[in-house]
């Protein structure tokens, strides 16, 4: 099976593929449709680029220069692994007349190094330190798209959204903070058509993993702005990573931490009480007791009051899915969605958030009509009885097993309607994903 993340399959003619991609790019920028042979990851990126207002004749903007750039680079976490990146990529870049580049989490280039002649050519399109190469700024490109979808990406020639960049080929992989999992930036190799090979994609991914391992060995940098990581999708009890320590939270503490993470400005006791308890007879004393236990669990200084708030910034897997979904990075959003949010929780605010997140992603998948993404949802525990998704999957992938499963669900739906006329199958998943 062809790897959709690799730009050229074995035996493909690069010159012919470039011609086909240029025709496809012209079609998209003219009428908005994406014909073959454009890969799905590139097609989705083109659509995100267009929605962001990027034009095919645009150029990158340099945001940091001179002293500002130097100060920013010196303080960036990836500065600590640049010697390793140079050791692993420098000779390859110089000998192959390529460039190695490292960007931050905003796809702003921090370092661009390599063959002098190639650097001079790259200067003409502002592929230089301090320039922003995010998808929202310059459209489809390896470092920007790798950060947007949070996975290694290869972009070949006319797959680039901006015409000025189409003579180039690049591969990039995101680098994550080993403590929190958040994206710190990406490592990239940029050059000619020879980079359109599976090895270049594997190469940058290996460099990114080596950088993460090095960061883990070096240990955390002390900062009052350190971000904690909260994992709450697909699990009844969330896990919080704070100050390098992993803590499994009780269900009630999971709910509290998630709500406070979404409200860094803080919540009053009354607001928390309403968000957590459907039973109006629950008293503020009950909530204060839970908060006291949580404060003891998290340690001194982690939880403040009046209003109740977390003293560390918290990145949650819920926010990751929401952010990717909002950016139109549907594949990346689906990959990050590991199940319903705290599925056993009955807290009113959590139920609303759980339903909104699942329904939003599910609706986007149905509208997108990607058979692989629909199949992943349909075969997951939360989607196996979702008749609407199975109907959508049967349209784009009408195989015998899919049709058989849909027929069984349709029969069950009909039987449920007969047994309980006027009802919408109550707690079954035939109309909506489970929560």
Characterise the protein shown here.
The chain has helices at 14-31, 40-51, 66-75, 82-95, 116-123, 135-138, 142-149, 198-218, 251-262, 269-276, 284-298, 317-326, 330-336, 348-368, 371-379, 387-396, 400-419, and strands at 61-62, 99-104, 109-114, 131-132, 153-156, 169-176, 183-191, 227-231, 239-242, 245-248, 303-304, 309-310, 313-316. With 435 residues, it is of the alpha+beta class. It has three domains: 14-218, Beta-Lactamase; 227-315, Winged helix-like DNA-binding domain superfamily/Winged helix DNA-binding domain (Arc Repressor Mutant, subunit A); 318-419, no CATH class. A hairpin with a 6-residue loop joins β6 and β7. α4 runs antiparallel to α8, α12 (317-326) runs antiparallel to α13 and α12 runs parallel beside α14.
Query: What CATH architecture of the largest domain do you see?
Result: 2-Layer Sandwich
Mean pLDDT: 88
Q: Beta fraction of the residues?
A: 5-15%
Helix/strand order, N-terminal first? HHEHHEEHEHHEEEHEEEHHHEEEHHHHHH
Any low-confidence stretches, pLDDT <50, length ≥5?
422-435
Q: How many individual domains?
A: 3
Reported by name, the CATH topology of the largest domain is Beta-Lactamase
What top-tier CATH class of the largest domain fits best?
Alpha Beta
The CATH homologous superfamily of the largest domain is termed GAF domain
Shape, per Cα inertia axes? globular
- As a whole number of angstroms, the C-alpha radius of gyration is 24 Å
- Strand ordering within the main sheet: 3-2-7-6-5
**Could you say which structural class the secondary elements and strand pairing correspond to?**
alpha+beta
InterPro entries: GAF (IPR003018), GAF-like_dom_sf (IPR029016), OmpR/PhoB-type_DNA-bd (IPR001867)
Protein name: GAF domain-containing protein
GO molecular function, one term: DNA binding
Pfam families: GAF
């Amino acid at each position: 099976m062809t790897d959709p993340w690799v730009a050229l399959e074995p035996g493909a003619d690069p010159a012919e593929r470039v011609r086909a991609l240029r025709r496809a790019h012209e079609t998209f920028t003219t009428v908005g449709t994406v014909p073959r042979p454009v890969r799905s990851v590139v097609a989705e990126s083109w659509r995100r680029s267009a929605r962001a207002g990027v034009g095919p004749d645009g150029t990158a903007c340099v945001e940091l220069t001179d002293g500002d750039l130097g100060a920013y680079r010196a303080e960036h976490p990836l500065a600590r692994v640049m010697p390793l990146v140079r050791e692993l990529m420098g000779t390859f870049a110089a000998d192959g007349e390529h460039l190695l580049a490292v960007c931050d989490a905003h796809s702003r280039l921090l370092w661009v190094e390599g063959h002098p002649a190639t650097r001079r050519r790259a200067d003409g399109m502002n592929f230089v330190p301090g320039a922003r190469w995010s998808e929202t700024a310059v459209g489809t490109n390896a470092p920007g798209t790798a950060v947007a979808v949070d996975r290694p990406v290869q972009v070949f020639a006319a797959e680039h959204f901006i015409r000025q960049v189409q003579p180039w080929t690049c591969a990039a992989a995101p680098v994550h903070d080993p403590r929190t999992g958040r994206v710190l930036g990406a490592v990239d190799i940029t050059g000619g058509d020879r980079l359109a090979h599976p090895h270049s994609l594997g190469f940058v991914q290996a460099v990114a993993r080596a950088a993460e391992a090095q960061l883990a060995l070096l240990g955390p940098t002390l900062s009052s702005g350190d971000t904690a990581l909260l994992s709450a999708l697909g699990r009844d009890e969330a896990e919080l990573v704070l100050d390098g320590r992993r803590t499994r939270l009780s269900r009630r503490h999971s709910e509290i931490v998630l709500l406070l993470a979404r409200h860094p400005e803080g919540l009053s006791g009354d607001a928390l009480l309403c968000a957590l308890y459907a039973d109006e007879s629950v008293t503020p004393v009950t909530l204060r007791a839970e908060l006291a236990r949580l404060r003891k669990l998290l340690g001194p200084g982690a939880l403040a009051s009046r209003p109740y708030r977390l003293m560390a910034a918290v990145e949650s897997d819920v926010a990751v899915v929401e952010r990717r979904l909002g950016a139109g990075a549907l594949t990346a959003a689906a990959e990050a969605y590991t199940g319903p949010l705290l599925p056993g929780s009955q807290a009113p605010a959590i139920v609303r958030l759980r339903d909104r997140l699942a329904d939003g992603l599910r609706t986007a998948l149905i509208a997108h009509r990607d058979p692989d993404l629909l199949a992943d949802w349909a075969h997951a525990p939360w989607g196996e009885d979702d008749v609407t998704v199975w109907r959508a999957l049967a349209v784009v992938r009408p195989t015998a097993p899919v049709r058989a499963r849909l027929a069984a669900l349709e029969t069950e739906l009909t039987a449920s309607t007969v047994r309980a006329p006027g009802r919408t199958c109550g707690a079954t998943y035939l109309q909506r994903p489970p929560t």
